[in-house]
């Protein structure tokens, strides 16, 4: 399976990031990832249907919030905190403080 | 005309505020209001249709981002920066820095 595309940090937009965050499931994933170095999709799925979740992961990747690393058949997700902090200082700290 | 309802600052939610911000027109209004004490609806409308804008103003009020003060036939809008700063420290500074 090929790697996912991730936008370059210079291409992130505030509006895109805010849209990525503006959903209860995606916000929960982001806040979960704020507490761990990375998490498998399975760990983040909980008991939610996989079909709807793959859309949320895609939105999170496209907005620059999340990086997905593929290792074998497992997908490991991490928050792009450094990139986000550089582009939008203070934003993620405010979001993760909740 | 009666005053608008505005949610109490303790009732604001991070998700609600993020949803309020996650639209290009609403984000522009918020960033405009970050630079001025208040602005009339007319000043914020630009050349956009009034009909679609009243929805955006309502979303901004409901999410706790915006306060509308009625004076005669004019509506004056301001950012609820103090309330937002108290509830979500650093969030609005990050949004307004863009």
| Low-pLDDT sequence parts of chain A | none
- Name the helicity range of chain A: 40-55%
Helices of chain A, by number, come to: 6
The CATH C-level name of chain A is Mainly Alpha
Q: Which chains share the greatest interface?
A: A-B, 17 and 17 residues
Strand sequence of the main sheet of chain A, in spatial order? 1-3-2
Please identify, by name, the CATH architecture of chain A: Orthogonal Bundle
Give the overall form of chain A.
globular
- State the assembly state of the protein chains: homodimer
- Please identify which CATH superfamily of chain A we are dealing with: Winged helix-like DNA-binding domain superfamily/Winged helix DNA-binding domain
Alpha-beta classification of chain A? alpha+beta
Q: Estimate nothing, just give the exact number of structural domains of chain A.
A: 1
Strand percent estimate of chain A:
5-15%
Order of helices and strands of chain A: HHEHHEEHH
Question: What's the alpha carbon Rg of chain A, rounded to whole Å?
Answer: 13 Å
Between the first and last Cα atoms of chain A, what is the distance in angstroms?
A: 36 Å
């Amino acid at each position: 399976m090929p790697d996912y595309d991730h936008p370059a940090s210079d291409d992130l937009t505030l509006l895109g990031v805010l849209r990525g965050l503006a959903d209860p499931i995606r916000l929960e994933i982001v806040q979960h990832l704020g507490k761990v170095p990375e998490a498998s999709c399975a760990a983040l799925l909980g008991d939610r249907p996989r079909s709807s979740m793959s859309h949320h992961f895609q939105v999170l990747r496209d907005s620059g919030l999340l990086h997905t690393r593929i290792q074998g058949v497992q997908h490991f997700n991490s928050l792009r905190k450094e990139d986000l902090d550089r582009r939008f200082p203070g934003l993620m700290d405010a979001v993760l403080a909740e």
